[in-house]
Amino acid sequence: MFDLIRAAIPVFLLSLLIEWAAYRHLNHDHDHEGAHEHYGYETRDTLTSLSMGIGNVLINLVWKGVVVTVYAALYRLTPLRLPQDAWWVWALLFFADDYAYYWYHRVSHKVRLFWASHIVHHSSQHYNLSTALRQTWVPMTALPFWLILPLLGFAPWMVLLAQAWNLLYQFFVHTERVGRLPAPIEYVLNTPSHHRAHHGSNRIYLDRNYGGILILWDRLHGTFRAETEPVRYGLTRNIDTFQPVQVAFHEFRDLWRDVRAARTWRDRWGYAFGPPGWHPRRRRRT
């Protein structure tokens, strides 16, 4: 099966080199004055992001086989079949996939078990194209959110292709080299400006802008926030390590520690499925 993401790896690397050269030889010029001091590239940070991306690709060589098997089984179970050569089916798939991504992304910020996987992507205090490659080594948390698509009659290969084009698009919004785009584009699409805000640890930016390609879902569900102040990238409590294994699993380690120390099953459930920062004395996120 054709893998769009693996085929795009040379494009990713070439884009990184172009952006790196732009930072090295041109002034930092995106239109957001007072941008965070950690712009551009830092060698250790970039190597960590590349390591996380390589690990993600290797793990997905195996995991993607599981995903295909599950999608194929569901596709065989459902009596629904959507034509694979109709333009309107591909248009419907575009919106269905992007909406599935919105909810996957939102839950990944709101439920600690899912956040333990997704936190990897937010762990860099820099924001550049290499940050897009800083991906989880536990991709299993994404599976539930797309199961409805093969059940609705979309062929499994179509669902996988839609997921790939969504990730491909998102690679290019991880940059400070692009300022705000024309207003109609900013209103409809997830742009570098919108995604910079999403990566901010500033209070006003927390849990905002979950969209993949479209920002319309955030506007519809009240989770949109424009980039209005300098973005402070990273986590509310940064992990201060460039060791890939620690980056990949530190939150799972902390989650397991909290679950083991909990005194009741209710508290164990809260630590695992409550929001990040949940504590039994507060019963809310911090």
UniProtKB/TrEMBL annotation:
InterPro entries: Fatty_acid_hydroxylase, Sterol_desaturase/TMEM195. It is found in: Endomembrane system. Keywords: Lipid metabolism, Membrane, Oxidoreductase, Transmembrane, Transmembrane helix. Residues 90-223 form the Fatty acid hydroxylase domain. It is a multi-pass membrane protein. The chain crosses the membrane at residues 48-74, 86-104, 143-168. This is C-5 sterol desaturase. It comes from Deinococcus radiotolerans.
